[in-house]
Amino acid sequence: MYRNCIKSEDNLKVCYLYREINSNKFQLVTIMYLYTFYCVLCFAQVFSFDLPEKVYTKECMEKLNINKEDVRNMVDKDFFFARGDPQTNEFVECSAISRNFISESGEMNRDILYHDLLDVVLPLFNKTTDSEIANKIVDECIDNRKDNLADRLVDLHNCLVNAINKYGKSLYTI
User: What are the coiled-coil residue ranges (predicted)?
Assistant: First the structure.
């Protein structure tokens, strides 16, 4: 088609139109490839998070014969724990007890929850470490009266995730 562009003026207009269409197709395909590449990078960033050591305890991992990958697999893509999973239940109970998060009477230690939220959890979610927001989140989630300790801890964790998404300020919007 390009070789015949110079023979007549009408044919020249068709040739320019053809070139423009091909150029637009190329731009569209390039944009699609760049968008796909961007999506792959975002997916890799979200699903390749590294758990800080405060999130898990080596003692519990050894006791339960699990590794970091097993702990990562306990949460879904939105970081929620599934209720009723025996391995998750054992892990959250062991971690809470070994870190003195739960008293012998079964009460949750608000100070430990607050500092973990501020120093570990909010940064893990790429949220700013705002003490006012951390207090609001702790107040909303700590009063959980389930009889089963594992259910209480899983519900607490899931409440924290919901509240972080609700109140947390993204680091990327500052």
Answer: none
Q: What angle do CA 120, 124, 129 make, to 5 degrees?
A: 60
* SS3 label, residue 109: coil
CA distance 2 to 123: 57
The C-alpha atoms of residue 155 and residue 160 are separated, in whole angstroms, by 8
Q: How many CA atoms, within 13 angstroms, populate the side-chain half-sphere of residue 20?
A: 6
* Cβ within 8 Å of residue 125, ≥6 positions away: 79, 161, 164, 165, 168
Q: How far is Cα 60 from Cα 15, in angstroms, rounded to an integer?
A: 71
Global confidence as pTM: 0.64
Rounded distance between C-alpha atoms, residue 157 and residue 88, angstroms? 12
* Helix, coil or strand: residue 102: strand
pLDDT digits (tens, 9 = 90+) for 19-56: 666 665 555 444 444 444 444 444 444 444 455 555 55
